[in-house]
Amino acid sequence: MFENFPIFPESASTLSGQVDALYLFLVGISLFFSLLIAVLIVYFAVKYRRQSANERPQEVHGSVALELIWSIIPLAIALIIFGWGSLIYFQQRRPPASATDIYVVGKQWMWKFQHQSGRREINELHIPVGTPIRLTMATEDVIHSFFVPAFRVKYDVVPGSYRTMWFQATKTGTYHLFCAEYCGTKHAGMGGWIVVMEPGEFEKWLSGSSNLSVVASGEKLFQELGCVTCHKQDSTGRGPSLSGVFGSKVKLQTGETLVADENYLRESILNPQAKIVAGHQPIMPTYQGLISEEGLLQIIAYIKTLDIPTSTTGEDAINSAPTRKDEVSSKQP
Length: 333
Ligand code: CUA
Description:
Layout: H1 16-47, H2 64-93, E1 100-107, E2 110-115, E3 120-122, E4 124-128, E5 132-139, E6 144-148, E7 153-157, E8 163-168, E9 173-179, E10 191-197, H3 199-207, H4 214-224, H5 227-230, E11 249-251, E12 257-259, H6 262-270, H7 293-305, H8 315-318, H9 325-331
């Protein structure tokens, strides 16, 4: 609709049409009332101008009907804007469960991406068309903001925690990616391209990499950093077992209960003393500085795959390394 009207960037995601519609509605409302008020000012100025030197206008003592009208109409309009905006916001903040995960790390001044398969890219992100994509985003230094105008999505990436956002491209093409938060000297150059491809083409592109998958890299780190020596699959380790921990409720020493999400796991690795699991000692050393943002994303992706061992049969129970969900399921036809 707006191809030849460059005020709007291209519209290329499932949400961009809705965002534009709400935006146009807001502009329409503003225009309508601005014009109405301007015209009425001129009209009344002429109509009620002073016509003789000793003219005294009639006093007006208010009108309930008028006051109701100018209270209820704006209220209704504001509620429509609120309801409509919330609907879009909820859709924008809730990725479908089937979304494909991609990991993003921002740093001065580039965007680094890693696909589940392990393939990495910098300042360029290839995605398949028609597939929901969930980004888990971290930053190595300051606040950056991931902005793709054609998808009508923008989300800040804040140091010390993970941010997630999602989108689904509706047509193939190459779309601008920007950093939308001033982050230093080369902020203006911190951008790149989202390349949206046909699914078949994308699969071909994705397979052209020999990197370890994200989960496999995480598993490797889990061994190399020695996590595995304390976090055993059963509860015989010095640290809590991590099997099935992701998304589960964790009871802390303070009596507090929380849901183990990405940010909780991240904090537990970098600042283990912050939240001690009930029944355990604060003996875990910090891994701050020993593991990169990418490494953290990988290790958390690995922990997410750890499953509670299915009614352990003999040797499995002794096996100290946690079992991966995909390994478990591959054993059961
Ligand atoms: Cu990163 Cu601006």
